[in-house]
Prior knowledge:
The protein is an alpha/beta fold. It has 2 domains: 6-190 and 222-302, Aldolase class I (TIM Barrel), CATH 3.20.20; 320-400, Beta Barrel (Elongation Factor Tu (Ef-tu), domain 3), CATH 2.40.30.10. 26% of the residues lie in helices and 23% in strands. It has 10 helices and 21 strands. The protein has helices at residues 14-22, 46-58, 79-89, 99-108, 125-134, 147-155, 179-184, 230-236, 250-269, 276-286, and strands at 6-10, 27-31, 62-67, 93-96, 113-116, 138-140, 161-167, 204-205, 208-209, 223-225, 240-243, 294-295, 320-329, 334-339, 343-344, 348-353, 356-362, 366-368, 376-377, 383-387, 397-400. The protein has an 8-stranded parallel β-barrel with strand order 1-2-3-4-5-6-7-11, surrounded by 6 helices. Strand 3 (62-67), helix 3 and strand 4 (93-96) form a beta-alpha-beta unit. Helix 1 (14-22) packs parallel to helix 2 (46-58). The longest helix has 20 residues, at 250-269. The chain is globular. Iron/sulfur cluster binds next to helix 7. Iron/sulfur cluster binds at residues 170-172, 177, 179-180, 188, 193, 195-197. One of its GO terms (molecular function) is peptidase activity. Belongs to the peptidase U32 family.
Amino acid sequence: MNRAIELLAPAGDLARLKTAVRYGADAVYLGGKRFSLRSRASNFEIADIAEGVQFAREYGAHVHVTVNIIPHEEDFDGLNDYLRQLESTGVHAVIVASPSIVKRVKTVAPKLEVHLSTQMSSTNSLAVQFYRNLGADRVVLARECTMEQIRSLCAHSEAPIETFIHGGMCVNYSGRCTLSNAMTLRDANRGGCAQSCRWRYHLYQDSQKLSEDHLLFSMGSKDLMAADYVKDMIEAGVASLKIEGRMKSAYYIAVVVRAYRQLIDWLRAHPDEDPSAAVQAAQQELMRAENRPACTGFLAGIPGPQDHLYDNAPSRVTHDFLAQVLDYDPARGQALIEVRNHFEIGEMLEAFGPHLKNTPFVLETMEDEEGELVAVANKPLQRCWINAPAVFHPYDLIRRKERKL
Ligand code: SF4
């Protein structure tokens, strides 16, 4: 159990990359503006990637870049130059979904590790070995593997294995879907998925409408939340645990990365103890991010009706993100914060951070930088000094336990 396992987090932009690393990710993955699925989710030019690599290095973390389009003929234009640029910025690995690009990376930019994308639906050790022989340094398994299969795959594969532990699921076999193409002309395999499976549909049998207007039907799956499988995955020899969600907010990234970081660290420190309480604490914390309803995907076997997202109603948001800490003055016992959401004097708030446990407190004092009293924080990016019941650090976050209606 003392073997280090990588916690791999998504980064939709530089700010979220830094949040993921500060909150405990060992590595982050991001997409550039070309050659990447979810290219719409990316703000990363080469200069941003270079800055991200530098920042991650300060924390001993790695940066992986997706180069995972299913390439058509014209998609190879400029690819060699792009790969060389990634290599020269110090990117650790590229995530690739094409055998030809696996081979190309090895020739053109050999310092880059090649991680085979989940888009290739690797579900058995023979497939993993095939891609290993082709040059893949790691294989990201299909989300459609059970825990039993992951155990066997790790035992019978030379290539390090990466598995998903958290985030969205495709209701079709991951990435092998043309729903979005058919309905919106947006190609899911070229970064444009419109998530058509999660739209709300009327059900018909022939011409007879089965659904009622207030009970529409979604084809989506509940999200994956696999905190109760982290111990199994470590023991199975999985090399990396991956969180999905390059479109998610910085608050989501902070909460989810921190929850899995704390769970992994607890498991390493207490290898022989019952992990139930630590798993439960992680699950409770994960529910404080803005998740859809969650399940354990395929890990326990084929998902059942209870794992289907029938109406795509969001799960209850139990916490609102309110502000980020910029500074702390120990002499005043106050923190300088930057406001992101409406709150006011007298409310019960909660601060948390990479090194700050969940700290509830009542907001008793608030003043602007000129010393004027503030009763209500309601301007985006407004800066205020507030009372702090503990030592707060820059990049700690403040949230409210219950949604204010
Ligand atoms: S439409 Fe749904 S199932 Fe298809 S690729 Fe997009 S998320 Fe996956």
